[in-house]
Amino acid sequence: MTKTACTSITIQLNGKPIDLEPGLSLADVIRRHRLDPQKAAVEHNLNIVPRSQLEYTQVADGDRIELVEFVGGG
What pTM was computed for the model? Predict the structure, then answer.
């Protein structure tokens, strides 16, 4: 019996299910939503992720991600 590669994973992003290909980092997910990782606050499975770790934190099936982008104004 041979194993087949998983072609997609499902995560919860801001409470909504989305399908992604496996192997993405949190920074990849942020960029796919046209946000700047340097201006984003990310909670990954109830843990705040420092910006310095966004490129290194992999997203897995079933993950829960809350994403907020900081907007300046005056």
Answer: 0.83
